[in-house]
Design brief:
The complex is a heterodimer of chains A (437) and B (116). Chain A is an alpha/beta fold and 437 residues long. Chain A is 31% helix and 25% strand. Chain A has 2 domains: 280 residues, 3-Layer(bba) Sandwich (FAD/NAD(P)-binding domain); 133 residues, FAD/NAD(P)-binding domain, CATH 3.50.50. Chain A has 12 helices and 25 strands. In chain A, strands 5-2-1-9-20 form a 5-stranded parallel sheet, covered by helices on one side. Chain A has a 4-stranded parallel sheet with strand order 13-12-11-17, covered by helices on one side. Chain B has 116 residues and is mostly helical. Chain B is built from 5 helices and no strands. The termini of chain B are far apart. The radius of gyration of chain B is 14 Å and the shape is globular. Classes of the chains: A alpha/beta (437), B mainly alpha (116). At the A-B interface, helix 1, helix 2, helix 11, strand 22 and strand 23 of A face helix 1, helix 2 and helix 5 of B. Bound molecules: flavin-adenine dinucleotide.
Chain lengths: 437, 116
């Protein structure tokens, strides 16, 4: 046996897959030797997609020069903010930092905002004035909101009727409003059309808000006004709502006049397509979305506001050398989940390393598992495996699917336990946070 | 480059030959060298979103690094064949890969040390 430590490179050797490491080391240089560099990669955004891409670029090719641009020193995940809203999780436990990337992997982390991209000169301009040169650029900026696309809902309105769809002050605001709400009040959530960040997110949110209300303000009601007729894991959510919350949660879909067309944040009122006015004690609006602003600046987004990409690599279909991952992309049937964003980060890191070395990219697979917690011991999932088939992304036939309906309570309890374990696993994989840290 | 890919293929052929000797021939006959080395690693990377980098995080979800290859292989294939009644997401995920791919992934994690 070989001695310790056995890392991935050693493991590949031991199992006879030594090609990967050797090929990378051998071919990484020639393409860039004449330019005196091993390749400079700049990654914008230190969330699920970007932080993963930066880490795995260095794992695949330690000699790469990798810079991550992210304004925050501490990143708070959207996943599990619904548990925080329900009083089931401490907000600080959702925060992660960039020490592993800097100290273990040698990524240069610049805490600034990327303001503009010059694709011809291959330079990224930062808000504080600095410029970064890149051979390849990876953007993982997440989403921005289409302020005003829903009448009456702009940044000022969000201070009264929070979205809480990015983790931070908005999340605290919504929690404070829930705490102040009177017993017998009416919590109203407005859910958007597809596509949007986290397809099961609005439904998990109303579940956990109902959990909080059931235990603290049991006479209250939860109303979900939806611009769609179907939603993610619908049958399982409805089953869980009936089981845990009786008739506390009411869901109104598109066909039943669920689509909200106007918001009055001062009066906490919304108006639907056919003129029904709903009044809320706490109004939570999940607004229409688009790719983060830097995607528009780079010229990679299309008319839809999202970014079309090449399926096998996630290189922009519009601007060669610029790769885009995460929620910003148009990657259906992949959902806009942190799980998938992180997997895309790995595959794209591999594609960028191969591209810099002038090599072909290996065939990719991506997986996804979205856990939703309906009540503390009641979890449900949707799982997917994706591949490229005839030039398009698709789900591998016969794979994936949702948890069984009517499953035993022990099955639901296991999925709730695994949800917590997944959170520990992915935040270690992305930011290096140790479980319990 | 071609030569290197060929070498990888040959190395894998050997790996898979062992796999057949150990695991018997599943319903999907193993094609020698069909799973490319890098492809095997890209599949293993999908696992680490729950099991942690290199499959080392210990939670309700078990770590993978350094566990016996035969055990990992048997479990993955049992997931795929719906022979694990207590399982939750793993059968749905394992069905996205061929048995040959699952065998190589098992080998990958088995050959890592359990500790960093
Ligand atoms: C309530 C809720 C619950 C969720 N639950 C889950 C879940 O259980 N599981 C799951 O998988 N997903 C979940 N998600 C979805 C998940 O949060 C997103 O899919 C994920 O964050 C996408 O990753 P990303 O890298 O694309 O964007 P983000 O994680 O948002 O990261 C983008 C980063 O880029 C930075 N940035 C943006 N613009 C710039 C710029 N110009 N310059 C520098 N930096 C910039 C931002 O500061 C941010 O840190 C949930 C989402 C919500 C809202």
């Amino acid at each position: 046996m070989l001695g310790k430590p056995v890392n991935r490179r050693e493991a590949l050797k031991r199992i006879g897959l030594m090609g990967a490491g050797a090929v990378l080391a051998g071919c990484g240089l020639p393409a860039y030797a004449n330019r005196g560099s091993n390749g400079r990669v700049v990654v914008v955004g230190g969330g699920f997609g970007g932080a993963t891409a930066a880490k795995y670029l260095k794992r695949f090719q330690p000699s790469l020069d990798v810079t991550l641009v992210e304004p925050s020193r501490r990143y708070y995940t959207c996943p599990f903010t619904n548990l925080y809203l329900a009083g089931l999780r401490d907000f600080e436990s959702l925060g992660h930092d960039y020490r592993e990337l800097e100290d273990t992997y040698g990524v240069r982390v610049v805490h600034d905002l990327a303001e503009d991209v010059d694709v011809d000169r291959r330079r990224l301009k930062l808000a504080e004035g600095a410029e970064l040169s890149w051979d390849r650029l990876i953007l993982s900026p997440g989403i921005d909101f289409r302020w005003g696309a829903l009448e009456g809902y702009d940044e000022a309105a969000a201070e009264k009727a929070p979205h809480a769809w990015k983790a931070g002050p908005q999340t605290h605001l919504l929690r404070a409003q829930l705490e102040e709400m009177e017993d017998g009040g009416n919590f109203v959530l407005v859910a958007p059309e597809n596509p949007f960040r986290c397809p099961p997110g609005p439904y998990e949110r109303v579940s956990l808000v109902a959990h909080y209300l059931k235990h603290n303000k049991p006479r209250s009601k939860v109303l979900l006004l939806d611009a769609k007729d179907n939603f993610s894991k619908q049958g399982l959510f409805m089953e869980g709502w009936a089981e845990h919350y009786g008739d506390m949660i009411e869901w109104v879909g598109l066909s039943d006049d669920g689509r909200v067309i106007r918001v009055d944040a001062d009066r906490l009122e919304v108006e639907t397509e056919f003129g029904t006015i709903h009044r809320a004690s706490v109004l939570n609006v999940v607004p229409p979305q688009k790719a983060g602003a830097i995607a528009q600046r780079a010229g990679v987004a299309d008319e839809s506001g999202w970014v079309p990409v090449e399926p096998n690599t996630f290189e922009s279909s519009r601007v060669p050398g610029v790769y885009v991952i995460g929620d910003a992309t148009e990657a259906a049937p992949m959902p806009k989940s942190g799980f998938v964003a992180s997997n895309q980060g790995k595959i794209t890191a591999r594609a960028v390393v191969a591209d810099l070395a002038g090599r072909e990219v290996p065939e990719a697979s991506w997986t996804n598992t979205c856990y939703s917690v309906i009540a503390p011991e009641w979890g449900i999932t949707v799982a997917n495996v994706f591949e490229v088939h005839n030039g398009d992304l698709r789900e591998v036939p016969g794979s994936g699917g949702v948890s069984p309906s009517g499953a035993a309570a022990s099955f639901r309890r296991n999925e709730a336990l695994y949800a917590e374990a997944w959170y520990a696993g992915i935040t270690q994989d992305v930011w290096g946070t140790r479980p319990g840290e | 480059m071609r030569e290197l890919i060929l070498l990888v293929g040959l190395a894998l052929g050997a790996v898979l030959a062992w796999g057949i000797a150990w695991g018997g021939n599943g319903p999907e006959a193993v094609e020698e060298g069909a799973v490319d080395a890098e492809r095997a690693e890209l599949i293993a990377l999908t696992c680490t979103a729950c099991h942690g980098t290199e499959g080392r995080v210990v939670t309700e979800i078990p770590p993978l690094a350094g566990r016996p290859e035969a055990v990992l292989q048997a479990q993955l294939i049992a997931f795929k064949r719906d022979e694990m009644p207590q399982a939750t997401v793993m059968p749905r995920l394992a069905k996205g890969f061929t048995e040959e791919e699952l065998r190589v992934v098992a080998r990958y994690f088995a050959s890592l040390d359990a500790d960093e």
